[in-house]
Amino acid sequence: MITKNVTLVDALDKVLEKGAVINGEIVIRVADVDLIFLGLRLLLTSISKAEELSGKSFSHLDKEPTPGDTEYIERLQREIKKAEENIPKLIDLSNPKKAEKGIAQLILTLVDLIRRLMEKEAYRRIKRGTLSPVEIQKLGLSLKAVKKKIEEMQAIFGIEDEELNLDLGPLGNLI
Amino acid sequence: MEGLYLYCIRERADDRSFSAKGIDGEGEVFILPYQELEVVVSRVSLNEFTSDEIKKRAQEDLNWIKEKALAHERVVEEAMRKNGRALSLIPMRFGTIFKDRAGLEEIFKKDYFKIMEVCERIRGKQEWGVKVYLKERKRFEQEIRGKNEEIKAMERELATLPEGMAYFMEEELKEVISKEAEKELHNMTESFFKSFKKEAVASIKNKTLEKELTGKSDPMVLNAAYLVPGERIVDFKKRLDDLNQQIQKRGFYLEYSGPWPAYNFTFY
Predict the structure, then answer these.
(1) Nearest chain A residue (CA) to B67
(2) Residue A27 is inside which H or E element, if any?
């Protein structure tokens, strides 16, 4: 007899998603494994991806919400509430050092977010051809400077690249 | 009121005892025979399993889902192996309950031959899971950089630009590299997936799982399952080991598990 350890991931991957389907009189429907973790994040970052996963179209905005939509929205609202309760915990004031890093992380994340937005805008203008080579040069340098400054601050406070983000709990990350 | 929770359907076996407990943690697991087949079930409280609370937990409570999925799998594992012999078995998807035996027998009356056919199709074969992860994306991208002409041309142009303008081009270059990497990654995983043509009689590519689920920091790039005849298992494992060595040189690695009940190959 061959023995093996059934890992949790495998059990979830197979038992919940695969296996023969017989139309029983009662079927317990477990949320799609990925959706349990990522449904909300997907919805926020990419509506089209969510469309693919759920088979539903979000593009007809004038359509009445289906019971499934309502349920989903309610779930979102619950998650938002949970996230709101979570955010204050990000900054741990009982520990001053941690608090310092927490605040630095918060500020740097926001600065980096703004930098990204500016960069996108700069791109749009370059593509549109409304900037002179000199302006492009100046913009590029400024953005690079901001980026380097952020990297420097990261080093000072010991903040990793992937920490340059806000974990909004079940809502996923800011960036 | 009690209902019957379904774990799997298997070919008839002599040993009908079970040590695993049912999905509710207490119900005895037992057999309902139907001609040449046996249905493995346990009794569950219908009140409990139709309650709103359980519906909610099934959607949201990850610990509950974990525990129940494992309980389901334990029963199926036990049903599959009796007296050292692997039985032909169709695992059910989680969560199927019948109110009584009559409802279940109706299904068998209607689908008996279809179910028998599936049983025959998977007889003597095992399901194996293969997951491939990408360990070193940087190395992988570096490789792409070195051989893509478009990228090389961009790099040459980049070297001639003033710093500020170069900044934008660097960002653009990063995007091109990442796009090319995705394309190459797709081709590679496709070729990994097809590496077992000689050994497996059927294969399926499932969606990859997120890091939150795998608990690994490396992203999963392939999540495949294969149906392998018992006599080819040795060859199959050998090929797995060879492939693993080969892909490690390019920054990937694989993990495999099995034998599994044929979860991926028993649709009918």
Answers:
(1) A8
(2) strand A26-27
B185 reaches A (C-beta below 8 A): no
* Torsions phi, psi for A165 (to 5 deg): -165, 160
Contacts of B65 in chain A (CB under 8 A): 12, 16, 30, 36
pTM metric for this prediction: 0.70
What is the C-alpha to C-alpha distance for residues B249 and B241, in angstroms, rounded to an integer? 13
Average pLDDT for A45-72: 49
Three-state secondary structure readout of chain B: CEEEEEEEEEECCCCCCCCCECCCCCCEEEEEEECCEEEEEEEEEHHHHHCHHHHHHHHHCHHHHHHHHHHHHHHHHHHHEECCEECCEEEECCCEEECCHHHHHHHHHHHHHHHHHHHHHCCCEEEEEEEEEECCHHHHHHHHHHHCHHHHHHHHHHHHCCHHHHHHHHHHHHHHHHHHHHHHHHHHHHHHHHHHCCCCCEEEEECCCCHHHHCCCCCEEEEEEEEEEHHHHHHHHHHHHHHHHHHHCCCEEEEEEEEECCCCCCCC
Min CA distance, A34 vs chain B (Å)? 7
Write out the two tokens for B198. Answer: 């000689």
| B244 interfaces chain A, CB cutoff of 8 Å | no
Domains of chain B by residue range: 2-123, 127-260
A 112-151: CB under 8 A from B: 119, 122-123, 126, 133, 136-144
Closest chain A residue to B162, measured at CA: A137
Does the structure show a pLDDT above 70 at A2?
Answer: no
- The DSSP code for A95 is S
- CB contacts, 8 Å: A8 with chain B: 66, 69-70
Chain B contact set for A27 (CB, 8 A) = 95-97
In degrees and rounded to multiples of 5, residue B202 shows phi and psi of -150, 155
- Which is more confident, B7 or A160? B7
pLDDT digits (tens, 9 = 90+) for B109-161: 999 999 999 999 999 999 999 999 999 888 888 888 888 899 999 999 988 98
Radius of gyration of chain B (CA): 25
Q: Is A58 an interface residue toward B (CB < 8 Å)? A: no
Share of chain B above pLDDT 90, in %: 62
Helix axes B62-80, B52-60, angle to 10 degrees: 90
